[in-house]
User: Which sequence fits this backbone?
């Protein structure tokens, strides 16, 4: 199922931060996990992901570090305290928006 | 499109050369992971690479977006403050400072102002990580500059560059950075370098400045240990540092005082006693403190002080260390408060830059600059109000000494450079440059 790009673009940061809340990940791993968790709905392009990760790092929501896994050096991202706070506020905002949309849709359908 | 050409197209959009290598490596890793995933599904290597690259997105769009994120940034607040300080400092010196009695030196002060701007701009555009990469070279350079200033200051009416010794503080931060992951040997070396720095400062600038610089360096070495720079047990490192850098000097001083050895530095002890009880040498060293008390009784909220001796006594004269009191005696406490508020704002801005730093060298260098600025402003205000020794301490920007101007220009320029490169210089990019200027990719 494909979803209108504009619908998810604003919430990509929230989704990435949510993934990193569970554990530290590298870029490719994030795309894979997001795709898997969303049952192939969110297929994020690397060209969208890396600028977003760098931007979130610039805002101090994420930090990065190099770690060697299976003989390969990888750049891992980790959520910061400020990132967790931001995620919480964005999640609340999203829930409010979702409820409002459902209310309107409910009225229309009903 | 091949992997190489894709990454080349991305990094070509990024103006900041220092950010390119890390981005190229990250994108290359991603393509390799995606290729491996396709190959596992039975796709041929060539086809897997082609598909992986295709899925990355438009290289120019990605590059432009990354360029926007990794571009240098300008701290307009600090630049504005430095500009205002330079102009205001010039007028303060002209109105109530040295130039008020020696207007013939106005040309020289203009040159000092210009030089200070140039040094600050030079530091701003310089990659600050050179202090970490060439810490010992910079240490030598600072020493040569100080020696040069001492040679040039030989002669009547010339003031040596006492404040230049404060440049050792950011250099010491660079030396600490070079000791990272070096274990206890690195910790010992860092402590040794701190003592060497203190000895050099003592020779060049005297006891008070040495105490200040030693204090800031002690703070920095503790900060480095707390950040795990030495890769040793933090508690053990703290115990060693407390013993060597704090308790040992205190014990040595105590022994020197008790055995009478300290009497050769009787001048320092006398200075302290006179400050505590100025009346014991009312016509000598205590005069300035008695004068300070009298002046503070005479100052008004707005306007010139009544019967100010500082304004009429030519033997004291307008000096840089007492410039705040000169200003207050001439224009009132309110104007003095404005100057103090400006120093507070400068210190706060410097602290904000420290807080923003995510990379270790940026944090340590900005902390070094902040501590020096804060300490000098604080001591300056305290000595002008009689709560601290009157020394040759000089406020940032409000001084007619060219070397003081250069010292603060370097510190502020360094802070601006740290802010500018905040998103560009990381701990991974702080390494000696190689001749390899182009991003190279390993071919399969």
Assistant:
């Amino acid at each position: 199922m494909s979803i209108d790009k504009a619908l998810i673009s604003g919430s990509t940061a929230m989704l990435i931060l949510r993934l990193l809340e569970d554990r530290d990940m590298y870029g490719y791993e994030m795309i894979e996990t997001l795709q898997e968790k969303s049952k192939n709905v969110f297929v994020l392009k690397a060209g969208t992901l890396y600028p977003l990760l760098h931007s979130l790092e610039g805002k101090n929501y994420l930090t990065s570090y190099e770690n060697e896994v299976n003989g390969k050096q990888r750049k891992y991202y980790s959520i910061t305290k400020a990132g967790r706070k931001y995620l919480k506020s964005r999640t609340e905002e999203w829930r409010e928006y979702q409820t409002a949309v459902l209310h309107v849709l409910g009225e229309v359908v009903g | 499109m091949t992997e190489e050409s894709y990454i080349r197209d991305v990094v070509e959009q990024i103006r900041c050369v220092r950010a390119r290598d890390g981005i190229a490596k990250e994108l290359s890793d991603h393509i390799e992971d995606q290729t491996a995933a396709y190959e596992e599904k039975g796709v041929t290597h060539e086809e897997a690479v082609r598909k992986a690259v295709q899925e990355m997105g438009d290289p120019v769009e990605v590059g432009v977006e990354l360029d926007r994120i990794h571009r240098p940034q300008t701290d307009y607040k600090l630049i504005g403050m430095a500009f205002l300080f330079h102009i205001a400092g010039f007028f303060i010196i002209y109105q109530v400072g040295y130039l008020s009695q020696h207007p013939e030196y106005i040309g020289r002060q203009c040159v000092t102002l210009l030089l200070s701007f140039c040094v600050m701009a030079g530091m701003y555009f310089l990659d600050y990580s050179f202090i970490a990469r060439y810490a010992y070279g910079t240490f030598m350079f600072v020493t040569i500059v100080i020696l040069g200033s001492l040679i040039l200051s030989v002669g009547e009416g010339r003031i040596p560059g006492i404040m230049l010794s404060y440049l050792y503080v950011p250099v010491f931060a660079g030396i600490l950075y070079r000791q990272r992951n070096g274990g206890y040997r690195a910790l010992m070396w860092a402590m040794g370098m701190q003592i060497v720095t203190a000895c050099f400062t003592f020779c060049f600038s005297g006891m008070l400045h040495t105490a200040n610089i030693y204090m800031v360096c002690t703070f920095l070495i503790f900060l480095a240990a707390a950040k795990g720079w030495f890769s040793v047990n933090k508690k053990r490192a703290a115990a060693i540092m407390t013993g060597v850098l704090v308790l040992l000097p205190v014990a040595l001083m105590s022994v020197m005082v008790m055995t009478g050895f300290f009497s050769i530095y009787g001048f320092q002890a006398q200075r302290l006693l006179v400050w505590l009880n100025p009346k014991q040498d009312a016509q000598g060293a205590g005069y300035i403190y008695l004068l300070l008390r009298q002046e503070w009784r005479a100052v008004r909220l707005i306007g010139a002080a009544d019967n100010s001796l500082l304004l009429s006594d030519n033997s004291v004269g307008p000096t840089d260390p007492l410039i705040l009191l000169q200003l207050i005696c001439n224009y009132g406490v309110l104007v003095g408060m404005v100057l103090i508020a400006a120093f507070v704002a400068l210190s706060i801005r410097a602290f904000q830059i420290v807080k923003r730093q995510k990379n270790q060298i940026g944090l340590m260098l900005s902390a070094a600059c902040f501590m020096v600025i804060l300490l000098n402003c604080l001591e300056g205000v305290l000595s002008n109000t009689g709560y601290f020794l009157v020394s040759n301490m000089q406020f940032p920007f409000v001084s007619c000494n060219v070397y003081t101007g250069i010292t603060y220009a370097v510190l502020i320029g360094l802070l601006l450079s740290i802010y500018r490169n905040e998103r560009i210089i990381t701990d991974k990019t702080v390494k000696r440059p190689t001749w390899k200027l182009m991003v190279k990719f390993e071919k399969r």
In short: DSSP finds 20 helices and no strands in chain B. The first helix of chain B runs from residue 3 to 12. Chain B touches chain A through 23 residues (CB under 8 Å). Residues 3-69 of chain B form one domain.
